[in-house]
Amino acid sequence: MSDLWVLSSDGRCKIFDKHADGYVRREAVYELFLKDLDHALRDRDHIRATVRATAAGSEGNSGPGIKDLSQTAFVECYGTVTAIGDVVEATAIAR
C-alpha cells in the first residue's frame, strides 16, 4: 500500500491539513445495542440516546439528499487524507 502513496509517511492522519500525505490503518470495534423505547422505559434502562432517524450511504450519487441542511447535526467524513481527496470532500461538504 505504501507503494501506492496512500499510507501516511509518519503514521499520523492529518485530514484537511496541507501536510496530509495519506491515511493510517487502524482497527476498531464498535458495538451499538438498540432496544425499543417502550421496553427500555419498562425495564428502567439508562437511556443514553434515542434514534429519531436513520440513513445509509453508498459512496455515490444515487438519489435525493437531505433537503433541510439546517437539521443536519453530524457529518461523517471518509477522510482519504490526500491532497485531491480532501479538497473534493471538503468542497462537497461545503455545498
UniProtKB/TrEMBL annotation:
Gene3D superfamilies: 3.40.47.10. SUPFAM superfamilies: Thiolase-like (SSF53901). Residues 6-39 form the Beta-ketoacyl synthase-like N-terminal domain. It comes from the Eukaryota. GO terms for molecular function: acyltransferase activity. Transmembrane segments: none annotated. Keywords: Multifunctional enzyme, Transferase. This is Thiolase-like protein. It comes from Aspergillus avenaceus. The lineage of its organism: Eukaryota, Fungi, Dikarya, Ascomycota, Pezizomycotina.
